[in-house]
């Protein structure tokens, strides 16, 4: 057995020189310090993404993307297909945990200023993937074609329409017409299972190659420490095994949540029914939703909602470009402003999410 | 044996015990992950209603020399009006590779377009790849209605 495996390895090695790769992997070290724990959230996010791909493909075996059949096909999956309820529940829970993990990963990178030279491209690809994750969540939410999804999509696309100039055509494009109909469902289905995964996978490959090529970023306070005093750990197998162990733990948590709190289906969407009381977007949109609610109808000459959307858009662009305007961190100097902005953002998101949750 | 050798033997015992425990646990975990996935992929049985006879329509719906394909349960069946008084019903599924056959009026044969299989009007395979004759069905006329049923 071992001999056979060795032969196969040598056969491949002869053709593609695996030895170089092994040498690269064995020379790769991960810094060990008090903040090493944050290194793991990128890997956890990756794990959730893999789970989403696997369970998503499984769901595609039974899902029918049309307004007449979508709801019924999911009901069929959940009631007739063996473990159908479990696969759907895992897809739904893993989506939520994925976004949570991505939030943590992104903010830890931000606070460590790991986006600074030479890792700007890693940051930019990451932020775009974060936005795509939210888009994944938004588009996937409509696919069961239930009451909540229907109204969430109506409200969500309506907010897009508030953007000046491009808003209306964009809203028309997203909905596939004036209203949220079966045409919207077909589009969102295409976005969710083809367009977004394609773009996301490309960005993910670039992101991961950059991480492998450049290695992990070290906290700034370690730059004056002598090389001999720094502690490290081999990436392979030490760090990778820790990664895998954490994945196993995460998989167990996911399974417990999916089994004991299974995803519900609700009522089928009915364009003539009224919106149910207490309707809310998913938790990761709640802080934006709540902010828009708090804004007055008019601020000077601008409509409150338009102002809100523009401010969030501006904040997003600044967030994406932080490696450009944070000049100090790139030079190795401390930049307290970054910390204050980060703390403000975290507090803002947490407080408004809680308010949105309580006020429902 | 001296002390170090005993220690070594104990260490080896412990190592192989842990090896079995961990690889067994991992194999178990893999099994409980793969089992739901395989079960999920297995399509659920759809309840099929057992059909024994089907009313095809009025006798005059099919002109002499014409044919019609209709559903018998989930399968297509072809009925041919050979002349004024003779009807014949046969399974329309080619015995070669599952295509649906058609009646060729000019040649008076049943023909499968996929691989040029030919059957005579009794359903017997006469040329081309079909390995078996087409299954036969009974035709009865009651109150001017065509009723096709399974051969007993």
What does the model show?
The complex is a heterodimer of chains A (360) and B (152). In chain A, 69% of the residues lie in helices and 3% in strands. Chain A is mainly alpha-helical and 360 residues long. Chain A has a domain at 28-214 and 232-263 and 275-285: Up-down Bundle (Cytochrome Bc1 Complex, Chain C), CATH 1.20.810. In chain A, the strands form two sheets. Chain A has a two-stranded antiparallel ribbon with strand order 1-2. Chain A has a two-stranded antiparallel sheet with strand order 3-4. The radius of gyration of chain A is 23 Å and the shape is globular. The model of chain A has no long low-confidence stretch (mean pLDDT 93). Chain B has a six-stranded antiparallel β-sheet with strand order 1-10-9-4-3-2, with no helix packed on it. A four-stranded antiparallel β-sheet of chain B has the order 5-6-7-8, with no helix packed on it. Chain B has two domains: 1-44; 53-150, Rieske Iron-sulfur Protein (3-layer Sandwich), CATH 2.102.10. The model of chain B has no long low-confidence stretch (mean pLDDT 89). Chain A binds chain B through residues 58, 61, 80-84, 86-87, 248, and chain B through 29, 36-37, 39-44.
Q: Count the beta strands of chain A.
A: 4
Unreliably modeled segments of chain B: none
Structural class of chain A: mainly alpha
Q: Tell me the CATH topology of the domain at 28-214 and 232-263 and 275-285 in chain A.
A: Cytochrome Bc1 Complex, Chain C
| Helical coverage of chain B, percent range | 25-40%
The poorly predicted ranges of chain A are none
Known CATH architecture of the largest domain in chain B? 3-layer Sandwich
Radius of gyration of chain A: 23 Å
* Neighbour order of strands in the largest sheet of chain A: 1-2
CATH topology name of the largest domain in chain B, in short, is: Rieske Iron-sulfur Protein
Number of helices of chain A: 15
The helix/strand order of chain B is HEEEEEEEEEE
Helix/strand/pairing category of chain B: alpha+beta
């Amino acid at each position: 057995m071992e001999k056979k495996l060795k032969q196969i390895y040598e056969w491949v090695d002869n053709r593609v020189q695996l030895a170089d790769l092994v040498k690269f992997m064995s020379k790769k070290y991960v810094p060990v310090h008090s903040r090493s724990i944050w290194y793991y959230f990128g890997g956890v996010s990756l794990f959730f993404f893999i789970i989403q791909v696997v369970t998503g493909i499984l769901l595609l075996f039974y899902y029918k993307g049309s307004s007449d059949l979508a709801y019924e096909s999911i009901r069929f999956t959940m009631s007739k297909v063996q473990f159908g309820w479990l696969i759907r529940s895992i897809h739904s829970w893993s989506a939520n945990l994925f976004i949570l993990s991505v939030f943590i990963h992104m903010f830890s990178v931000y606070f460590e200023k790991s986006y600074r030279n030479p890792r700007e491209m890693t940051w930019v690809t990451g932020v775009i993937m974060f936005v795509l994750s939210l888009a994944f969540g938004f588009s996937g939410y409509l696919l069961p074609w239930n009451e909540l999804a229907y109204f969430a999509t109506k409200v969500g696309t309506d907010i897009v329409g508030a953007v000046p100039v491009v808003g209306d055509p964009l809203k028309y494009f997203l909905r596939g017409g004036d209203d949220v109909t079966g045409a919207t469902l077909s589009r969102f289905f295409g976005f969710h299972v083809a367009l977004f995964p394609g773009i996301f996978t490309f960005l993910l490959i670039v992101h991961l190659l950059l991480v492998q090529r450049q290695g992990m970023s070290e906290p700034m306070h370690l730059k004056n420490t002598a090389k001999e005093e720094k502690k490290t750990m081999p990436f392979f197998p030490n760090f990778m095994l820790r990664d895998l162990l954490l994945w196993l733990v995460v998989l167990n948590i996911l399974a417990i949540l999916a089994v004991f709190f299974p995803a519900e289906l609700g009522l089928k969407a009915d364009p003539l029914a009224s919106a149910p009381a207490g309707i809310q977007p998913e938790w990761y949109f709640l802080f934006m939703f709540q902010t828009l609610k708090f804004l007055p109808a008019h601020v000077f000459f601008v409509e409150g909602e338009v102002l809100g959307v523009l401010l969030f858009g501006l904040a997003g662009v600044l967030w994406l470009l932080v490696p450009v305007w944070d000049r100090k961190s790139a030079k190795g100097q401390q930049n307290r402003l970054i910390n204050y902005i980060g703390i403000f953002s975290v507090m803002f998101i947490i407080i408004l999410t809680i308010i949105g949750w309580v006020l429902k | 044996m001296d002390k170090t050798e005993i220690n070594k033997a104990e260490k080896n015992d412990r190592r192989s015990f842990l090896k079995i425990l961990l690889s067994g646990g991992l194999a178990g975990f893999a099994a409980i992950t793969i089992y739901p996935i395989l079960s999920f992929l297995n399509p659920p049985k759809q309840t099929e209603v057992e059909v024994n006879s089907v009313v095809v329509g009025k006798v005059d719906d099919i002109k002499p020399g014409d044919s019609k394909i209709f559903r018998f349960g989930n399968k297509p069946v072809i009925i041919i009006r050979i002349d004024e008084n003779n009807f014949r019903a046969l399974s329309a599924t080619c015995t070669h590779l599952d295509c649906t056959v058609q009646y060729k009026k000019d040649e008076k044969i049943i023909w499968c377009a996929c691989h040029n299989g030919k059957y005579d009007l009794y359903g017997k395979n006469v040329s081309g790849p079909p390995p078996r004759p087409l299954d036969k069905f009974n035709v009865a006329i009651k109150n001017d209605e065509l009723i096709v049923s399974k051969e007993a």
